Amino acid sequence: MLADSANLDRAILAIEPGDILLHATDKRLDGMAYAFAAVIDAKTPFTARHSTNVARDAVGIATSMGAYSDMCRDILRAGLLYDIGKLGVSNRILDKPVKLTDEEFGEIRTHPRWTWEISARVTAIKSHVLDAAAALGERGTFVVLAEGRDDPFPQLRQEPAKFIRTTSVA
Q1: d(CA 9, CA 3)
Q2: Which of 19, 48, 66, 143 is the most exposed, fewest CB within 10 Å of its CB?
Q3: What residues are labeled active site?
Q4: Right CATH number for 24-169 from 1.10.3210.10, 1.10.10.10, 3.20.20.10, 3.30.450.20?
Q5: Torsion of CA 118, 119, 121, 124, to 10 degrees
Q6: Cα–Cα distances in Å, from 128 out to 42, 119, 125, 133, 164?
Q7: Beta-ladder partners of 142
Q8: Its pTM surpasses 0.85
Q9: CA distance 148 to 87
């Protein structure tokens, strides 16, 4: 059974070609981010092309502000990945045609933490890109945490980085 992570890790390693080493180039990381965005956006018709649109708009804003190319690439990746945590939210909630209950909205508000936890497994993604992707919450605001939880991103509350603010606007 692949349900537990120990078995899943073993199963993945068993099918991985051991003699081929793929380096995490910028092109491959961008491709991975676009692939994740496509999966995220396909989860529900309400989010179709949302991640790619956010990424595109954020890069456009950053470019107009004179951001350098490495920052634009980081903004692109953060925009593409920021909703990946919604993969952990039930479609019964995401596709609900009527107003969400407080409990359901609370479930959606967990997606930034899931975004960070899922994205962090890709060790080639820069930590500030992970932070930016996770820091983006609903309505372009910063992470809204459930009551009683520790803030995993206190540095972002003190002085948010330019690329996080840019992506928040988009």
Answers
A1: 10
A2: 19
A3: 86
A4: 1.10.3210.10
A5: 170
A6: 26, 12, 8, 8, 9
A7: 136
A8: no
A9: 24
Q: What letter does residue 97 receive in the DSSP assignment?
A: S
Provide the β-strand partners of residue 136: 142
Rg from Cα positions in the chain: 17
> Treating both helix axes as pointing N-terminal to C-terminal, what angle do 162-169 and 127-135 enclose, rounded to 10 degrees?
40
- In the chain, where the domains are located: 24-169
The whole-chain average pLDDT of the chain stands at 75
pLDDT tens digits, one per residue of 11-34: 777 777 777 777 788 898 999 999
Asked if 142 and 156 touch (Cβ cutoff 8 Å), the reply is yes
